[in-house]
Amino acid sequence: ACMMNIGELPADVLSIEKNKQVSGTFDDQAFQASLCPSHHRVGGVSSDPLPIRLFDLLGYHTTPHIGVYGDEYNPCVPYVMLEIPFVPDIIPKQVPRRMLDFLQISNDYCANTRFYVMIHTYAEPYVCQHFLCDKTNEINVMAHCWTFPDMEFTEDLDVQAIVQMGLFNTHNIAETHMDQIPELAGTPIENMGPRIVGIHHQRFSPANAQIALSGPSCSYYSFFMLLIHRETKKQVLSYHVLPGSTEVEARLSEAAHDTTILGDLLTKLGVVFEKEQHNPITPIIDIIKHVHI
User: Fold this and answer.
1) How many CB atoms are located within 10 Å of the residue 148 CB?
2) In the chain, which end has fewer C-beta atoms inside a 10 angstrom radius, N or C?
3) Is the pTM of this model over 0.85?
4) How far apart are the C-alpha atoms of 247 and 244, rounded to whole Å?
């Protein structure tokens, strides 16, 4: 089904080229592009590199990330990173209906809203850091770089915020650690809730905002995510796909590395999951087909 609807995409979107200057990752072959009209110059060339600030010292994009909490707590840096324009009128056609119940569309929020599509590297399993939990099937929402984009990442940096988080239209994942107090609990699904986001002693903390991955037999995990920081009146929407194995990861990275225009990328990505009942690339096409460059 996925291959059928790539034809619905406008020609100028299909021909968008990947950035020549990659940012926020050591993977110089990553597929990064902006579909935002304000960032487009004559000839339909996207912003190159992406117009996204980098987090101090670590050099990650100041966007949401997905990682596995532990001694390292490095994000699963995306192979594919697309910046999508946030247009309130077309958002209802692009994201799950339940997400719209929480999305802020007042003018002050709209100016500070960003929208991304990310296809991630494989999340290496690591034992849960909760005292009485030894599961190895959990990943974490990392909102730190997005919440604190301007901070100097020094030894004495000690900051904490409450961010509203929620996942929507999830595939192959489940809630976990929901028995904690809300601020320290896992990430809610089809709902939003307050979660602590902190940095101290050059560490991202706490061990919260977990997501449980269901079954090692899954070829992918996917979800929409919404983060809202009320104090600064900003929000970020994103759609995420994570490979379920290193084999799937290899095929995703090959698709990102071997293609130079968006249409070819989407075709190759779609083929990776063509046998799946739900193709996780289809929501990307549904997001992109409503974008006017």
Assistant:
1) 22
2) N
3) yes
4) 8
Taking the C-alpha atoms of residue 291 and residue 293, their distance in angstroms, rounded to an integer, is 6
> What is the 8-class DSSP label of residue 121?
P
Dihedrals phi, psi of 92, to nearest 5 degrees: -60, -25
Amino acid at 16: I
Nearest to 226 by CA among 114, 144, 138, 118: 114
Query: Residue 271 in 3-state DSSP?
Result: helix
Percent of the chain scoring above 90 in pLDDT: 81
- Strand pairing class (78-84; 113-120): antiparallel
State pLDDT tens for residues 79-132. Answer: 999 999 999 999 999 999 999 999 999 999 999 999 999 999 999 877 666 656
Q: CA–CA separation, 86 vs 112, rounded Å? A: 10
pLDDT tens per residue, range 125-178: 776 666 566 677 899 999 999 999 999 999 999 999 999 999 999 999 999 999
CB-facing half-sphere around the CA of 115: CA atoms within 13 A: 19
Q: Is 17 helix (H, G, I), strand (E, B) or coil?
A: strand
